[in-house]
Amino acid sequence: MSSQAASSTFRFKGVAWLAGGFFVVAVYSQLRVQAIERKAVLNKAEKSNRFIISVTDEPRRGQILSADGKVLARDEGAYELNIQFRKVPHSDGFFLDLGEATGISGAEFAELAARGDKNQSWNAVITGEQKRKVDSVKYRWRADGLSVKQTGQRAYPLGYAASSLVGAFKDGSATKGLEKSLDGDLTGTKGVAKGLVDRTGAFLPMRMDGATVKRVDGQDVELTIDSDLQKVAADAVKKAVESNKAESGIAIVMDPKTGDILAMSNWPTFDPVTGQGPDGKSADVNPNIMSRFEPGSTMKILTVAKALDEGLIDDHTTVKCAGILKKGPYQVKCDSHHGNRAHGVLDPEKAIAVSCNVSAATWALDIGFDDYHHYIEDLGLMQKCSVKLPYQVSGSMIIEPVAKPLELMCWGFGQSMGVTPLALASAFTAIGNNGVRMEPRLVKSIGGKEQPVQEGKQVFKAETAQEVLKFMEAVIDSDRGSGKTLRIPGYRLAGKTGTAERLGRHGGGYVANFVGFVPAIQPKAMILVMVDHPQGGKYYGASVAGPVFDELARAVIRKFAIMPSAPPVTSTPKAPAVEVQVKKP
């Protein structure tokens, strides 16, 4: 080996040893600072105006979205600034810095401080970016009297139109609706970072393991609701309640094939921001799931479906309505609320069209007490629905062993039972879904994870459902139909009117109902409307609940771009036929 090569090797080894030595020294130095002398170093840092703090990173609460991507609930992203003047510097420089950070005049801060009451507090709402600047001012000036916290407020773009579904979240607390029932999913986890703040207010996070816990934002929740249909439903129900001087009203739009709730509204309801109802009154009850109503004459379509499915009647079977039906010591009547009237001989289609109580009671007697009772259970009318809403109630029935024939006849036309509107809507999906009842679904996904559609229950045959839809078409298309004023030219619609007596302590007055399908063949939507205790002079289903159905049917046609099935009818329908009603003896 030449002397030059040996010299080069020697220099290389020297450099390597030197670099290795520096590395060992650096490792030891960091080990000493971070571990061996950690406490002493931190004490020195604090004494030299650098001190350890913990900074909380608040999580974002999850959004609630409609199926068409519209925001129904979101964080406002605002913060509340609080100043305790006795704990902040009283200097022009501090107030100028604070004014620059908040966009509020520094002179305003100085004026408040100069009033002499150093114990007063002052609040203002600032943005997230302003919060970061205020934090810098706080640490730079050591202003312990400055504090910033999230307002805990939410924005609800649809307002009252979706409030009974979405609920309310205020001052850090979920109190109603999905905000309450899904609070665990919507709420995230706070993040925490430990570090140092220097004289300029800059935060220097520590790199040690465990010094930082990342925040986890709340999960977004997507609903099955269509925002356009929801707004139409809300406005239409509000109008119906106010124009008919009713106590309340509801509307539900469902996809009968999946059970997806496309719209569900009620009036009165509350402002999700203030929590107050109309005129400052509380309106916390969502009748769709928290109140029971008699189904009234809408139940007749479910009664005739069962009788058809069991082969007890066919579409040619007739009942002679003499205006009254007796069974032992009990009787029920076809009554228009102004006196008895007979419908004569009716097949099922005509009986449904004119809403004959005697026919429905006869079908119920043919079915029998036990079978009809089991049928009600199969329809889910006595159950709570599996939607993720709080405070639901189940259905109830009047069962008096000594009066079974009377109760059975009354069940046939929708009396002597109380059901929630949502449970009733679920039962009606079987008519539009080839005899398969679908469980309602309101939440489509949580955190991007699809919430499955529940398997339906076959309650009658597909042919039965199709036959009943034809009967319901006659309610609107027939000249004798109780819903003929609700025709939409060119479109085949199926419907059923209903007028039920009010239940229990609410006895006295009526509930006007309407259920329908759009279109009548392979329906895209099932629509249920109920208006409780109208006192404006009208109380029949077609005249009170019918206009809400009409607005929603037209909205469904627009939403799904449903083409006309026939040329428009130019003739003007006659005045609506008088609907029948039974009163117990």
SSE blueprint:
Layout: H1 3-36, H2 38-47, E1 51-57, E2 64-65, E3 71-75, E4 78-84, H3 92-102, H4 106-114, E5 121-127, H5 128-141, E6 146-150, E7 154-155, H6 163-166, E8 168-170, E9 173-176, H7 177-181, H8 183-186, E10 191-197, E11 203-205, E12 212-213, E13 221-223, H9 227-243, E14 248-254, E15 261-267, H10 287-290, H11 300-309, E16 319-321, E17 324-327, E18 330-333, E19 344-346, H12 348-354, H13 357-367, H14 369-378, E20 396-397, H15 404-412, E21 417-418, H16 421-432, E22 436-437, E23 443-446, E24 449-450, E25 457-458, H17 462-477, E26 494-501, E27 510-518, E28 525-532, H18 541-544, H19 546-559
Helix pairs in contact: 3-4, 3-5, 9-19, 11-13, 11-17, 12-17, 13-15
Structural class: alpha+beta
CATH H-level superfamily of the largest domain: DD-peptidase/beta-lactamase superfamily
| Strand content range | 15-25%
Which descriptor suits the 3D outline? elongated
> What percent of the residues sit in helical stretches (DSSP H or I)?
25-40%
- Total of domains: 2
Q: Which blocks of ≥5 consecutive residues have pLDDT under 50?
A: 568-585
- The total count of strands amounts to 28
Question: In CATH's first tier, which class of the largest domain applies?
Answer: Alpha Beta
Number of helices: 19
